[in-house]
Structure formats: C-alpha cells, structure tokens
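Task card 7
Instruction: Convert sequence to structure tokens.
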Amino acid sequence: MRVQVCIPHYFREHADPSDNPNGYGSLRRGARLQRSIALSRCITSLLNLQRAAETCQLNISRKWIDHLSNSPEPLEIKISICTDGANRLQDVLDLYQSKIEVITLKLDDPRQLPLACRDHLINSHQEADLLSYMEDDVVIHDPLFFDKLKWFHEKTNHQFSLMPHRYERIDAGSMETLLVDGPLAPEFIGQFAKPQTQVANGQFRGIENVSFDIADNPHSGTFCLSQAQAELLRDSPLPREGFVGPLETAATLTVLHRFPVMKPSRECWQFLRVEHGHPSFLHYITKLPHQTAN
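Output:
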C-alpha cells in the first residue's frame, strides 16, 4: 500500500496575541520547543508506520547483518511538508531531510497555506492508494491506522469519509485522556450534516467489531482519501472557506462538502484515534463542570 501524506507546516514564534484569536499553537508566543517536539513526533510517528519486506539484525558474534522476513503487507509512506519558505522550524526539518520532501508554496497570504497544501495533495498525487492531509501536531500510534482507513473505504464503496478521534493526555487521578473534538452546537453542524449514532458497523479483519456515527464534530486535524475519492474531488472546485477558518476548512470541509463524515462511535473511539501532540485544550478540565456519562 502506498500512502501520500501532505503536512502544512507554519511557525512564527513572536506573533502578537491579537493576531491569534483562535489560539493556534503555530502562532503562540514562546512555543518553539513545544512545536518542535510536536512536529518531530508527527514525522517520526509516520516513519514508524512504514513496513518493508525485511528486518535486519546485527549479528555481533559473527560480525555480519542477518536478514529476517516480515509477514505484513508492505506500507510505503511518502511525507511532504508544505511551507511558505520562511516561517518554519528549519532545524527540525533538517533532522529529517533524507526522509521527507519539503515543498515551498508561493502564497500572498500565509493563512492560506493549509488550503494550498490540500490542493497540492489532491491534484499532484495520482500514484498513491491513500492520500492523507495532516496538521503538523498530529501523532499516530496505531500501526494499523492506514489499514483501517483502507478497509473502511473499501467496505463503504468510497462513499463516506472516516475521521479519527483526536485526544490529549490528562493523566490526573482517574482521568486518562481528553477527547478534544466533542459535539458541536446543533445549529452549526446542522449546516453540514445530520449527526446520527451507530449508523453502520463492521468487523475489522474478522476480529474487531466497530460501530460508526455520522459525526457531530467531523474535525480531527486530518483527513484521508482513497484515490477514487480524490478523483471525484479533482473534478470540482474545492472549498476555500466556510468551516471556521482556512485551517479547519482544509482539514474538514474538504471532505465534508462532498462525503458524509463518520467517526467510530464513542464506545469504540480507540479504534481510530490520533494524539494532539501540542495540547491546547487541557485547561478546560479545570474550567468547565464535569458530567458523568450515561
């Protein structure tokens, strides 16, 4: 399986807070170290998902390299980092220079970088089986992440989009994780979709039973298209605005305007999940009242 990932990457450390009303980590003052770690974890997590035909072992006693066969289907991931050429964490990109492709996009407005990155992904990569857009602080831990997405696309005949649940670690008392993309206001999400629980179910690899909802919050900071879906999107104009800002429009409305978006049902949320590598929502844990789930 061949996967093309395109990541818009932008960082400007000393932005005036008034220029960052949405609190984006890429514009947050004093966040260079956190963004560097998040970007590094994002790239490393993708590299770790790759599967090749062999594993090598250093045979110290015989002073040679042993070759062992791997059984899983090979998985090749090509990583393209899209930047404006100036506002980027160059030292981090340099660490991975032999493993990634860095693309400079000419922009009149740097806020349009996510949309330009999305356009590049969809219009320039007809060779890949899956096309994945990903914000630069998304971290994948599941080695079967793209296998699950491919399975979903095939089982739904490429008529739906599947988004992961995005989370941040809490690790305080009995609280382990915070799912950060909870239900949106009905009057807002109602402009785009009619949320519904448990509209579909399936059995991944004949073992894991999973149910799916029409998402009441389709945003995840990432999306993944099959090549068949990408071909449909190439045939019509892609949205430039309409879902919060350019960042969210690129990550969400790109697919939402054409395909119903599902997520695993809440009780199955761990089936498909990604970590938000630069936590931005944990402060709500102490600011908002807590409600025990029914």
